[in-house]
Amino acid sequence: MRGFDVCGVSYAAKDVGGDYFDFIELNDHQCGIALGDVSGKGVPAALLMSNIQATLRNQAMVSSSITDCIKNANHFLYLNTESNKFATLFYGILDCDKKTFRFVNAGHNFPYYFDQSEQFHTLEKGGLVLGMLPECPYEEDAISMQPGEIVVIYSDGVTEAENLLEDQFGEDRLMRLISENKDLSSNELMKKIYADVKKFEGNKDQEDDITLVIIKAI
């Protein structure tokens, strides 16, 4: 997108995964950006996430309200899944004209916003995970992004990756990586994070999907 360097990747722990990310072109200056994580793994989780993706895409194309998009996705998941199934979802709209990122966080890991003063902020505003209740209130928030500022959206497969000693990669390591590599492109930073997670895991098998979306203002 004009004025932004954006990329994403997902590495499934099994043949298919329950994580997903998506870029939804809304018009010539706005792009919807989503990252979600369904409870469970394998084919059932992947099928459920594909349905959520289709629902979100459909809603995003007919409504400019990100809270309405999330409310409808929640209602769909509640009606069409078992009571023990749920999903976390982070969805935002990046506006390359206004240089803003509006978002709703439905129970997802808090993405990191790394600003020009090299301070970290978490993108928390939103509501409950999807599928727990038929109707949930959701709130949106927004940030303005200046050149060099970075947003890192990730699934718990990043921070909860474990080594053979059952230590977790953790949020502190992730923040340090972002800070130390802030001058890299989004794609280079994404590759660096993934490589460091795999190095940390060592010989231990990947137990959860690893998904990243990185937005950098340029």
Strand and helix layout:
Layout: E1 4-11, E2 19-25, E3 30-38, H1 42-62, H2 66-80, E4 87-95, E5 100-106, E6 112-114, E7 120-122, E8 126-127, E9 141-144, E10 150-154, H3 156-159, H4 170-180, H5 186-201, E11 210-217
Parallel strand pairs: 5-8
Antiparallel strand pairs: 1-11, 2-3, 3-4, 4-5, 5-9, 6-7, 6-10, 10-11
Helix pairs in contact: 1-2
How would you explain this protein's 3D organization?
The protein is of the alpha+beta class. It has a single domain, classed as PPM-type phosphatase domain (Phosphatase 2c, domain 1), CATH 3.60.40.10. The chain has 5 helices and 11 strands. The chain has helices at 42-62, 66-80, 156-159, 170-180, 186-201; strands spanning 4-11, 19-25, 30-38, 87-95, 100-106, 112-114, 120-122, 126-127, 141-144, 150-154, 210-217. Strands 2, 3, 4, 5, 8 and 9 form a 6-stranded mixed beta sheet that branches. The longest helix is centred in the N-terminal third of the chain and has 21 residues, at 42-62. The relative contact order is 0.20.
